[in-house]
Amino acid sequence: MSKVYNSTAEAVRDIRDGSTLIVGGFGLCGIPENLIQALVEQRTRDLTVVSNNCGVDDWGLGLLLAAKQIRKMVSSYVGENKAFERQYLSGELEVELVPQGTLAERIRAGGAGIPGFYTPTGVGTVVADGKEHKDFDGRTYLLEKAITGDFALVKAWKADTLGNLVFRKTSRNFNPIAAAAGRITIAEAEEIVPAGTLDPDSIHTPGVYVQRVVQGTGYQKRIERLTVRSI
Amino acid sequence: MNDNRSVIVMRAVQEIQDGMVVNLGIGLPTMVANYIPENVNVMLHSENGLLGIGPYPVTGEEDPDLINAGKETITAISGSSFFDSAESFSMIRGGHIGLAILGGMEVSETGDLANWMIPGKMVKGMGGAMDLVSGAQRVVVIMEHVNKHGESKVKRACTLPLTGQRVVDRLITDLAVFDFTKDGMVLVELQPGATLEEVRSKTDASFKTTTELERGVTC
């Protein structure tokens, strides 16, 4: 049965106000730019967005922020965005900062059916406030809870019609774990191929985690910091 | 790079040994990569999902799908591998990264590090810094010894919110190199041109010195 939707608008239609979304990407690398655009056009509001970053002022999740569609961000680093600062200081936007590895593992745990885990990250810092501490073999750890989403939005390089996904280089980042942690996972891809044409040994995200696949168009793939060397 | 920063980076390069897996933090630590000798083979880890960072690309070969943790376009060396963010931090948390070199705002005499947040300023987030300091086998912090007002960044206790408690193994500044041991903070080297008196006068933290350094001063 094909999971392919005809348009990004159709793929995000049932994302309602107040939903929790897990969104793949690191900086502007590997972000589901078409699906984010579709949510901007749909004007879905009061979103809780779990994503490592929040885009830049005029691209990626920054577009949802600029349109005031996000109520809460759960991220590890949000320093690239002026609208973020304004909305946070005025109290319109709630923010939960999570160490990047803890964020990744909380999402992974969510997809893997593990409700919580102990990690040494953040012991003795503000991150530890209010959390259960437990010693194992003489070292102290914090209890961190899993994250799941009503929806996950991810970006693949290639998808097949059954939702098997392949990512390219460092655009993989949070996408596979986000895909597993969404109750409904929507993947946009640069290329959709017939089931059976991807090498089963090379699939990064098995199709069981992906409910919808949609062809992305007009990829901008913006570069946040262009750095080159002289020969 | 100004002279102080250059002194710090050139000393930090010496921490990197052949065969190591190393994570370099954003900013000054990233510049350390430019000075690793060609006969020293290291795998540089990027927490967004790459083991084997190469040099910056030449113009025209930049790839938006290939960036480092500072969101800069990079290349990947022969023998590199890509992976997702959970796997990347399993490498860090699991102790598979031999050395992390990170920047600092303050370091305390007990090896606490503050490098992610200044109260009253916009909070940007800790990124992967808290995971790196609690997971890497060895943590080296590099920073200028005093701030722009001339105040010591090497403190008895950090005044800024911590990134990690008792996590620093070695601190390299433009004036000196300190190790954090069971016996406390120990001055192990003076940087070129620095004197013990100068280090003492510009350091808020209390520290011990090695007998070799003491002798050097009295000679």
UniProtKB/TrEMBL annotation, chain A:
Protein's UniProt keywords contain Transferase: yes
GO molecular function: CoA-transferase activity
Entry-linked SUPFAM superfamilies: NagB/RpiA/CoA transferase-like
Stored InterPro entries: 3-oxoacid_CoA-transf_A (IPR012792), CoA_trans_fam_I (IPR004165), CoA_transf_BS (IPR004163), NagB/RpiA_transferase-like (IPR037171)
Keyword terms, alphabetized: Transferase
Keyword Transferase in record: yes
PROSITE patterns cross-referenced by the UniProt entry: COA_TRANSF_1
Highest taxon in the source lineage: Bacteria
Alphabetized PANTHER family for the sequence: ACETATE COA-TRANSFERASE SUBUNIT ALPHA (PTHR13707:SF60), KETOACID-COENZYME A TRANSFERASE (PTHR13707)
Family to which this protein belongs: Belongs to the 3-oxoacid CoA-transferase subunit A family.
UniProt protein name: CoA transferase subunit A
Native source organism of the sequence: Cohnella pontilimi
TrEMBL record, chain B:
Keyword Transferase found: yes
TM regions (residue ranges): none
GO molecular function terms noted in the UniProt entry: CoA-transferase activity
Keywords linked to the UniProt accession: Transferase
InterPro entries reported in the protein's UniProt record: 3-oxoacid_CoA-transf_B, CoA_trans_fam_I, CoA_transf_AS, NagB/RpiA_transferase-like
SMART domains xrefs: CoA_trans
Domain of life: Bacteria
Subunit structure: Heterodimer of a subunit A and a subunit B.
Similarity-based family: Belongs to the 3-oxoacid CoA-transferase subunit B family.
NCBIfam families: pcaJ_scoB_fam
Full protein name: Probable succinyl-CoA:3-ketoacid coenzyme A transferase subunit B
